[in-house]
Amino acid sequence: MEKILIKTEFIKLDSLLKFAALVGTGGEAKYVIGEGMVKVNGEVCTMRGKKIYPGDKVEFDRFSLEVTKE
Questions:
Q1: 9: Cα separation from own chain's centroid
Q2: Distance between CA atoms of 69 and 42, rounded to whole angstroms?
Q3: What is the mean pLDDT of each run of 10 residues along the chain (70 residues)?
Q4: What is the CA angle 44-48-50, rounded to 5?
Q5: What is the pTM of this model?
């Protein structure tokens, strides 16, 4: 599981996918989230603006991310 360090209180799901370089564009993030291809804390999430906080785990494709705070 890869740890992603953020400096803010939270990061939105679509921004996290771009920040972690799992997608190339916001449009691609919107598509994969809308199609139910992303899990947050083990549950499918279709809300691209979902706030992801430190300690949350995000899964997409074969990647697993854990958000941590500086």
A1: 14
A2: 20
A3: 94 96 95 97 96 97 93
A4: 80
A5: 0.92
